[in-house]
Amino acid sequence: MTLSTEQTGTVVLTRLILRRERVRILIWTTAVPLLVLLTAASVKGLYPTQHDLDVAAEASEGNAAAIAFNGPAQGLDTLGGEVAFQVGTFGLVLVALMSTFMTGRQTRAEEEAGRAEMIGSLPVGGHANATAALLVVAGMNVIVGALVALGLIGLDLPVTGSVVFGVSFCALGLVFAGITLVVAQISENTRVVHGSTGAVLGVSFVLRAVGDIGDGTASWFSPIGWVQKTRPFAGERWWPLLVPALCAVAAVFVAHTLSDRRDLGAGLVPPRPGPPRAARGLGRPLGLALRLQRGSLIGWTCGVFLTGLAYGWVADDVEDFVADNEAIADLIAGYGGASLTDSYLSQSLLVVALLGAWYTMQSVLRLRGEENGLRADLVLATPVSRSRWVASHLTVALAGSIVVLVAGGLGTGLAYGLTSGDLGQVPRLIGSALAYAPALWLLAGLATTLFGLVPRGTVAAWAALIACFVIGLLGQALDLPGWTRDISPFEHVPRLPAADPSLTAPTLLTVLAAALTAAGLSGFRRRDLG
Question: Which of 145, 203, 408, 427 is the most interior residue, by most CB within 10 Å?
Fold first, then answer.
């Protein structure tokens, strides 16, 4: 079969993906640039003078934790360099996740659901679906990169640095699209594909952090490190972009080669045969739900714990860090009325809670994935009621949210306790993190309601979560109006440990969460599957 024959039908399949995924494409290509640009705008407001930039640069350049978390300290005495430092790594991780999820969804998930086999019965080439998916994901990365560059130029940042910054986003996205495509040829399970590429992203982050703290060598083994070698706003260099470009091309070539050596629907590595008899717990819906979500829960727990460690490690130096910057001091003080350190810790725990909300949302919407994959039909064909099946997954999600919050509070408290010599901060900050549990449960209730009543609209739950991120992370800096900030349930949770505890708002959030969950359960009992 010739190369042109292998690509037959690519244009039609590309249009099909654009039509089917138009909402997800719109959300990703809007949300990522928006988050980056809003953060950039807030950074611009925090450092209005050259003196503020110089003070921040001096504090960051000697702070290993900040470098490990944000990226290399390059050109921090300029506004562009500070923007790249504050939002660069965060935005790059978002772009990598976007490419991973979208590529895996359009390739391996399509095969797992059986739709790729149905399409394969039509006159389309063997590589047409993968190429169509890559074209769509590549287009999304180009849009994100272009919007980021244009937005930064609109904020009066240097044109060359803005363009390099935007192109680096696009380059990293293409690398992870290629990596995901390769892994999709190896495993026949979508969860394994996403887990493996997520592990690659995690290793890339760690290697980049080790390199940036050290002599920079380890950064050359990280895709994130490759694109940050372009040094946006700090003496731009174009040639490092050759590395991710070559990596992306090589990954696509390897993926197509591997694709020719496997059957449709199968992976190169067959799944291991299970034991002859299932464990007793797997015979129950709760045990099955826990087994299905075990990997995700472990991954999120470890990730949030490490995030808490990073935030807690610098907490003892916050007052010295902001001593000469009135704008940052006012911003942090706005999160609570206690000391600057407690205000900083309350904002750190909010970030931990938002990450926990992401896990909770993903865990609840696993219900929709099981339904779309037709696996729910098999379970519900047994003497298991719909309510019991949904309740089993919700139990894992809600209990898992507690585990993730405890991990975040433990990481923050442990790091802060070790640096300040006061390990009594550990239980204090674990309790402060748990105060956000009702907010997570409310979002879980919203996702359950959409799943039960409007299953095709579950993507709206992700939009709500993104809104919570924007309001929680940038609402104070952007001076958003009060009614806008009240939309987020996190705004109604007492900002412990900076604020006084209160049971009123958490109780109302819990009641509302229960009502939404009940509505979702009721709707699911009455609607058709599929």
Answer: 408
199-204 average pLDDT score: 86
Spatial distance between the Cα atoms of 358 and 443, rounded to a whole number of angstroms: 9
- Give the Cα separation of 317 and 340 in Å (integer): 10
How many Cβ atoms sit within 10 Å of the Cβ of residue 296?
19
pTM for this entry: 0.79
Q: What are phi and psi of 216, to 5 degrees?
A: 95, -10
Instruction: Supply 184's token pair.
Output: 């999709």
Long-range contacts, stretch 196-204, CB < 8 angstroms, 24+ apart = 197/100, 197/104, 198/100, 198/299, 200/176, 201/93, 201/96, 201/97, 201/100, 201/176, 202/303, 204/96
Closest CA to 22 of 484, 516, 456: 456
Chain CA centroid to CA 181, Å: 19
For residues 496 and 251, what is the distance between their CA atoms, to the nearest angstrom?
A: 47
Please, which residues have CB within 8 angstroms of residue 341's CB and are 6 or more apart in sequence? 315, 316, 318, 319
HEC string of 92-115 equals: HHHHHHHHHHHHHHHCHHHHHCCH
Give the tens place of pLDDT for each residue, 28-77: 898 889 888 888 887 887 787 888 888 778 777 767 767 877 888 888 88
- Is the distance from CB of 376 to CB of 389 less than 8 angstroms? yes
Per-residue model confidence as pLDDT tens digits over 394-452 = 999 999 999 999 999 999 999 999 988 888 889 999 999 999 999 999 999 999 999 99
Number of helical H runs and strand E runs in the chain: 25, 0
Peptide bond into 240 cis (omega under 30): no
Q: What share of the chain is helix, strand, coil (3-state, %, to 5)?
A: 75, 0, 25
Whole-angstrom distance, CA of residue 272 vs CA of residue 161: 49
pLDDT of residue 24: 86
Give the residue among 146, 199, 160, 155 at the shortest CA–CA distance from 176: 199
* Each residue's pLDDT tens digit, 471-522: 887 777 667 788 888 899 999 998 888 888 888 999 999 999 999 999 999 9
Question: Residues near 257 by Cβ (< 8 Å), separated by ≥ 6?
Answer: none
- The answer to whether 139 and 99 are in contact (CB under 8 A) is no
CB 469, CB 485: distance < 8 Å: no
Residue (of 188, 210, 472, 497) closest to 344 by Cα position: 497
Compute the distance between CA of residue 217 and CA of residue 198 in angstroms, rounded to an integer: 23
pLDDT digits (tens, 9 = 90+) for 93-106: 889 999 999 999 89
Give me the helix-helix angle, 159-186 and 128-154, nearest 10°: 160
Written as one letter, the residue type at 470 is V
